Amino acid sequence: MRLFLLAALAASLYAQAPDSAKCSGTPKPFSPGSGDWNGWGVDATGSRFQPTPGLTAADVPNLKLKWAFAFPGVVNQRNQAQPVIVSGRVFVGSAAGTVFSLDATTGCTYWTYDAGNITRTAIQIVKPVGDTRWIAYFGDSGGTAHAVDAQTGQLVWKTKVDDFPLARVTGSPVYYNGRLYVPMSSGEEIGSGAAKYECCKFRGSLSALDARTGSIIWKTYTIPDPAKQYKTGADGTKLFGPAGASLWSAPVIDEKRKRIYIGSGNSYTGIELPTTDAILAFDLETGSLLWSNQVTPGDNWVPGCPRSALCPENPGDDYDFGSSTVLRTVGGRDVILASQKSGVVYALDPEQRGRVLWKTRLGVGNGLMGGIGWGMAAEGQIVYAAIADINKPDGTPGLYALRVDTGEKVWSTPAPQGAGNRAQAAAVSAMPGIAFSASFGGHLRAYSTKNGEIVWDFDAAQTFPAVNGIPAQGGAFNGGGPAIANGMVVATSGYAFAGGQGGNVLLAFSVDGK
């Protein structure tokens, strides 16, 4: 009911916005191109690297705010949607469930679409095989995938991919060759805190949908069999398992091998599983699970551990893979790069069932706000990883650069002191010569990829005049990183969870604000 009211409020506030906030005149021709930031990882390999950003590394210190847009009805919510910039428009979801299409130059609104649930995934704009329309694909926190006409905002189809009550799409759906691949995660870990809750029954899954119709072609669970009661709690509550192995990130396509890779989350129960905290490889055509490399066994955990009555015996540390993998080629050999909430970066061999080639520890990891949260970026033979680590005295928040071939640290830049919460959990985004990383304290920073020097720092924890006439407040950064395209950098700010400052603003930067 609360989500419904938020969505209704968003629609109401949009209707009340001044006419000046709505785009007028004939829309510009819609023609997505190679210079766009389209989808979560920009390319099929998940690099989060923009090769043609429309600005140079020398321009970045001169970035200034061009416009701010206020998400209606979502102040003090978990506002973490990854914006994308496609054909001169910014597409972004919100915590109220409203998806927006904005003009990248002015911030005016072309259209809104009510998804009905929190929408935090990146949006991918594609003209599917056999279709004449450009379609915007995304998922919501109710376990539903959506396809919307990218030019008009009209619904094409929506599919309930998972009927579990707490199922959600957190990782961005990825289009490839006529299919939409949708990862499924869950809020059951949080829901398990309810009194007498019969924890736990959710199973992560990856599904392939027909991109034109939304019909499910195949669905593969990360846990093959449904949960069964395996014991009774001290208060008489029935306890079920196995459960967990959620898929929190955008999958990555391996075109050469016709595979799709994704990392999994922890187990929710005391039943050991081989597919939790693992890198998984699925067959693109059939959905068959080809292999699983579990790098952290025994990570059985729910919120409240170790004191919760539902906490498994000998609980783990909540070391999910929340980040997307990155596929790179080094020395003629392909490698899968994976980053974990443990603070470790791995390189795995796709030809040897994910055998670990090297691993490098960057942080101490500590569950919710530890290690590497939402994603790395890769440029050439260097990969950039941000560390959150704030809840342990030996935590090491900051940005790190590693060699892809060996895992050797090239440079590291600690998060600055005196700028609020130092955790850097949001996904990293990169362009030639620059890596962008944002903090829980509300700072969006640009780092020189030569030596890690901070060359630009913007404090978003303030109020802004918004182009849509609604009060705008910046705050913590988490989840998706900034989108970079056509001379602009666009980022979402305001994340009211785990100690972060809430907000409701989308910030667009350009050189000198022009």
Which short descriptors sum up this protein?
4-stranded antiparallel beta sheet; 37 strands; 514 residues; Lipocalin
Helix count from the secondary structure assignment: 2
Reading off the top of the CATH hierarchy, the class of the domain at 121-169 and 172-323 is best stated as Mainly Beta
**CATH architecture grouping of the domain at 121-169 and 172-323:** Beta Barrel
Q: Kindly, what is the distance between the CA atoms of the first and last residues, rounded to a whole number of angstroms?
A: 42 Å
- For the secondary structure, the number of strands is 37
Q: What is the overall shape? A: globular
The gyration radius over C-alpha positions equals: 21 Å
Mean pLDDT: 92
Helical residue percent? under 10%
Described by its quaternary structure, the protein is: single chain
What share of residues are in beta strands? 35-45%
Q: Main β-sheet, in a few words?
A: 5 strands, antiparallel
Provide a descriptive summary of the structure in words.
There is one protein chain. With 514 residues, the protein is mainly β. The chain has a domain at 121-169 and 172-323: Lipocalin. The chain is 4% helix and 36% strand. It is built from 2 helices and 37 strands. It has helices at 2-16, 188-191, and strands at 63-70, 84-86, 89-92, 98-103, 109-114, 124-126, 135-139, 144-149, 155-160, 167-168, 174-176, 179-186, 205-210, 216-221, 228-232, 238-241, 252-254, 259-263, 278-283, 289-294, 326-330, 333-339, 344-349, 355-361, 377-379, 382-387, 398-403, 409-414, 429-431, 434-438, 443-448, 454-459, 463-464, 472-473, 483-485, 488-493, 505-511. The strands form 10 sheets. Strands 10, 11, 12, 13 and 14 form a 5-stranded antiparallel β-sheet that branches. A hairpin with a 4-residue loop joins strand 17 (252-254) and strand 18. The longest helix is centred in the N-terminal third of the chain and has 15 residues, at 2-16. The protein is globular, with a radius of gyration of 21 Å. The relative contact order is 0.15. The model is unreliable at 1-16 (pLDDT under 50).
